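so my prof wants the structure for this chain in the tokens format not the other one, which i didnt know existed until like an hour ago. anyway here's the sequence
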Amino acid sequence: MAFEQATSAEIPREDLPENPTDLCWTICARLPLDTWERQRLLEHGTTRERLLDLSAVLRRERDLRISTRVGGAALAHAGAPF
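here's what i got, hopefully its the right format
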């Protein structure tokens, strides 16, 4: 929102699923994760376990971007390491 106001650019948005299971799959599919980490998320037995693990991954990625000041860096492809 702030970026749009500062640059007059529009950022496309998409509707996210409301169902927790579908939301979890959607987020996992879009995160730039290594194959082993993506597989670990897929192997959880319940949505609750997957969401708890996914929450930790998101916090870790946020903290990494803050500490390295690399927010918004483009990746070569999904799953590529930083």
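also thought this was worth mentioning. The mean pLDDT is 81.
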